[in-house]
Design brief:
about 140 residues, 3 helices, binds adenosine-5'-diphosphate, binds magnesium ion
């Protein structure tokens, strides 16, 4: 099932992401794709809010590959922007959701293999502050 939403501000993206995250089961993996500045990190910030986590904790990881935030639920935030393909295999991404945390991965197109059951979120900058967010549920 694919859902498409248009947002007109960062706040709207965060609100859509919060609603989306509230419905996610424990251990869900969310693969985020979109150009630099498309809103992937903004979406993850909204997901954090939806999981009862302080959204202020979510930053664009510069040197940190994997960050974990805790609130009512746990969120693991991965940003593969600066990682090369071969290193990604060593990150142990398979185990990240094992304790029930939701796992959100930016630049997921760099993953060497598909993640079974993952939900794919694709963000596109349509100009100005308008973003298209396509959510394709895993299956
Ligand atoms: P990415 O992680 O994809 O590189 P960020 O979330 O870090 O992108 O940055 C998105 C940028 O776009 C921010 O500066 C944000 O304020 C701006 N922006 C403008 N409109 C929107 C929108 N509708 N949704 C999300 N971000 C938006
Ligand atoms: Mg980002």
């Amino acid at each position: 099932m694919t859902e498409v939403v248009l947002t007109r501000s960062e706040e709207e993206t965060e609100a859509a992401a919060a609603d989306f995250a509230r419905a996610l089961p424990a251990g869900a993996t969310v693969l985020l794709t979109g150009d630099l500045g498309a809103g992937k990190t903004a979406f993850v910030r909204g997901m954090a809010a939806g999981l009862g986590i302080d959204p202020g904790e979510v930053s664009s990881p510069t040197f940190t590959l994997i960050q974990e935030y805790r609130g009512s639920r746990a969120l693991v935030h991965v940003d593969l922007y600066r990682v090369e393909g071969l290193e990604i295999a060593d990150l142990g991404l398979d185990e990240l959701g094992a304790d029930g945390a939701v796992v959100a991965i930016e630049w997921a197109e760099k993953l060497p293999a598909p993640v079974p059951g993952a939900t794919r979120v694709t963000l596109t900058d349509l100009g100005g502050d308008v973003r298209e967010i396509k959510i394709a549920a895993g299956g």
